[in-house]
Write a structure and sequence with these properties.
alpha/beta; elongated; 131 residues; 5 strands; three-stranded parallel sheet
Amino acid sequence: MDQFRTIVEIPESDFKISYHSKILMLGSCFVENVGKLLVQNKFNTTVNPFGVIYNPISVGNSIQLLIDNKEFIEDDLNFANDLYFSYSHHGSFSSTSSEECLKSINTAMQSASLDLATADILFITFGTSCL
């Protein structure tokens, strides 16, 4: 036995990401970490405009909201524990003021809708869980 490991040759891909690529990233905390590195290294990247989302249905709903260029209104918000929030967004968008909550949500949504329409790359990850 000459080797204690299996060597796997992976051919170089024709698909390349460059500084000219426009990237939209949606999904789990993995997207947050990879996206942070891309942003730090000056790639044109939008990371989780809804905050961290884990399941495929939420990711699909989020993409549809971006395609529809949805503008959230006060009726779209919920109120509990003295905070306004949207079930479509991570808790980081919550606020004690409905106006502030809507402003942060709609600012992110407007920008991300344009980013999706012009993106070269849509990078999606889902959460993992062991049952």
